[in-house]
Write a structure and sequence with these properties.
The chain is mainly beta. The protein has helices at 164-167, 171-175, and strands at residues 2-3, 11-14, 20-23, 31-32, 42-48, 56-62, 67-75, 83-84, 94-99, 107-111, 114-118, 126-127, 137-143, 148-153, 158-162. The chain is built from two helices and 15 strands. The chain has a four-stranded antiparallel sheet, with no helix packed on it.
Length: 186
């Protein structure tokens, strides 16, 4: 279950049998939004965007049925239509997706094979588990004040990753041939 930071009472809920529902009125009325998605999979995560009030991210996990495809989707219209974010990326069952707190182009994806990052809203993905064992990532949260990603794994500890430099990688910076980061005055 997740609540939009833009509208009180706007909730999205996912179930272990693949159903996803959204409400705009604190649960008075619910609309099923998962009919066009793969069916009978565990909804491992639902999240609203930090930047767009109608954007929802979801991940589906089929390992209970020996389906190990990486299913991560985004909707820009509260679930009316969905876009697969992992069309050219298959790293095993997915457990969690997280949109960056400062740069809406950056997404983090936790799978049964580690942690991955996309700098382009899910078009391409790269391994982001440097220093972590090849282990299932089950949860993530960004500590906004410290600018750190905290990653919870399946029985192999908790990891934190500094994000300040990553969050600065905007489209403008990525197009430059050279970029200098500010140096902290200590």
């Amino acid at each position: 279950i997740a609540e939009s930071k833009f509208k009180f009472g706007q909730l999205v809920v996912g179930t272990d049998d693949g159903n996803i529902h959204v409400t705009k009125d604190s649960g008075e009325n619910w609309t099923k939004i998962s009919n066009s998605l793969p069916q009978n999979l565990w909804v491992s995560r639902v999240r609203f965007s930090n930047f767009n009030k109608e954007r929802i991210y979801i991940t589906l996990n089929g390992y209970r049925n020996d389906i190990f495809t990486t299913y991560a989707y985004v909707s820009e219209d509260l679930g009316t239509t969905w876009k697969l974010l992992t069309e050219n990326f298959n790293q095993n069952a997915v457990n969690v997706i997280l949109e960056d707190s400062e740069n809406e182009n950056i997404l983090y994806l936790g799978t049964d094979n580690g942690l991955f990052i996309s700098m382009d809203k899910g078009t391409t993905w790269e391994d982001f588990s440097n220093g972590m064992p090849n282990v299932a990532v089950h949860d993530m949260v960004i500590q906004t004040k410290a600018k750190e990603l905290v990653v919870g794994t399946h029985g192999r500890s908790i990891y934190k990753i500094a994000l300040s430099n990553v969050q600065e990688l905007t489209d403008v910076v990525l197009k430059k041939s050279l970029h200098l980061y500010d140096i902290e005055n200590r």
